[in-house]
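PROTEIN DESIGN WORKSHEET
SECTION A - STRUCTURE
LENGTH: 442
TOKENS:
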């Protein structure tokens, strides 16, 4: 609640109600009620504005919840990818460990192969030294020429070939083993490099996913904080709306209290008003009798007061009802009920209420407007073409109280009462006019 707004309204209400210890003028009394109603309208408008903001907050809260759901779904998806990536990293680590084990075994094989190569190298070196010391290939010739027989020669040739072939075999094995060693080293090193690269890519992916998850978690945290703020703001608005509703009720009570106070003040003056009215009636009756040739005419009786909230405003004949009719040859819509009678015909208030206007109009003639509050609904009644009015603006009246006399003033063709009934306020467009027969038995 805007505290300044609340204080200003309360102060205005206090000045309006508490500032009228006496009934100074009827105009000021009527103004006090209208001021309270204006304040009540302002509070109602403010409450509608606050309720609109509450609806806006509800929409923002729903949008925030949807965003949270979306972020939570993204976090879940990222968590799934993280789990899958961690599994792959574990698998790659296992493969790397297995490959490392292969490398370690290969290293042992390589060491063994190196040892064999070293032994062969020593054997070849020993063979080379022997050949050098004995004269190389000439030594083999001495062996062959030293044969004692052909069979011995064949044996010596076979022995020399065996030695030469053995040396050649050792050299071939040396070359093959060295090539195999180089091939195994290259394959293992490539396999290990590929595994390490794959693991590095997976670790990089995991790092990126961890970063994404952290950002989403931070965004989710911000949305939660925003949601909490929106709920607090909504609660404040709801509290403000409740306070405005209470102010509406309070002002309604103040309006009723002010109306009751005005009614009580009006009743205190009613005796005097009735005395004046009776004197005026007698005076007019005498004047009517004189104008009619000196004969005596008795005043027409007032319409009997009916039970319930409403009563007929005058005694007489219904000449025109509410609705379409023809006047001077032209079709028109008649917004009231016409009651005609001869003589001095009193007119009564159709229900309890307050006189909001009593004046002379070129169309309505002497006319009185009365506002009524019945079962929470506001009504307005209009009494037109009267010969005179006995009430003034701001005066409280009871159902059946005399407010004037039937006449022929304003735009009128013969003595009658033109009576209108509005659900709500009177307007020149007659937008709220209703058929009086809906509420009154004439």
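SECTION B - SEQUENCE
RESIDUE ASSIGNMENT:
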């Amino acid at each position: 609640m805007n505290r300044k707004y609340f204080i200003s309204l309360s102060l205005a209400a206090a000045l309006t109600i508490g500032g009228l210890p006496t009934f100074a003028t009827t105009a000021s009394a009527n103004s006090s009620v209208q001021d309270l109603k204006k304040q009540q309208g302002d509070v109602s408008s403010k409450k509608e504005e606050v309720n609109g903001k509450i609806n806006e907050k509800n929409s923002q809260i729903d949008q925030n919840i949807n965003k949270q759901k979306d972020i939570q779904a993204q976090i879940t998806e990222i968590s799934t990818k993280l789990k899958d990536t961690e599994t792959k990293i574990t698998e790659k680590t296992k493969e790397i460990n297995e490959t490392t084990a292969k490398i370690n075994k290969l290293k042992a094989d390589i060491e063994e192969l190196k040892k064999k190569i070293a032994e062969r190298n020593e054997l070849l070196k020993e063979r080379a030294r022997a050949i050098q010391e004995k004269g190389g290939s000439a030594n083999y010739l001495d062996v062959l020429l030293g044969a004692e027989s052909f069979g011995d020669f064949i044996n010596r040739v076979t022995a020399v070939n065996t030695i030469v072939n053995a040396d050649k075999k050792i050299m071939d094995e040396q070359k093959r083993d060295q090539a195999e060693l180089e091939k195994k080293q290259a394959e293992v090193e490539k396999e290990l490099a590929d595994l390490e690269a794959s693991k590095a890519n997976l670790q990089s992916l995991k790092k990126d996913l961890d970063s994404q998850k952290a950002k989403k978690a931070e965004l989710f945290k911000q949305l939660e904080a925003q949601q909490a703020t929106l709920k607090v703001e909504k609660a404040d608005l709801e509290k403000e709306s409740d306070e405005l509703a209470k102010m509406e009720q309070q002002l309604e009570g103040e309006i009723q209290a002010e109306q009751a106070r005005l009614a009580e003040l009006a009743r205190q003056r009613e005796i005097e008003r009735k005395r004046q009215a009776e004197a005026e009636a007698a005076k007019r009756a005498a004047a009517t009798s004189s104008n009619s040739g000196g004969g005596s005419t008795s005043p027409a009786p007032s319409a009997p007061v009916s039970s319930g909230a409403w009563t007929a405003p005058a005694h007489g004949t219904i000449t025109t009802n509410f609705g379409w009719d023809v006047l001077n040859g032209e079709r028109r819509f008649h917004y009231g009920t016409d009651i005609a009678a001869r003589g001095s015909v009193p007119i009564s208030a159709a229900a309890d209420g307050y006189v909001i206007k009593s004046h002379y109009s070129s169309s309505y003639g002497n006319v009185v407007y009365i506002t009524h509050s019945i079962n929470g609904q506001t009504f307005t009644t209009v009494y037109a073409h009267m010969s005179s009015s006995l009430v003034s603006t701001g005066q409280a009246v009871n159902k059946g109280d005399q407010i004037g006399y039937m006449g022929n003033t304003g735009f009128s063709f013969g003595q009658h009462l033109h009576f209108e009934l509005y659900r709500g306020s009177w307007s020149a467009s007659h937008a709220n006019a209703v058929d009086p027969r809906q509420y009154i038995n004439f």
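SECTION C - NOTES
The mean pLDDT is 80.
The longest helix spans residues 150-291.
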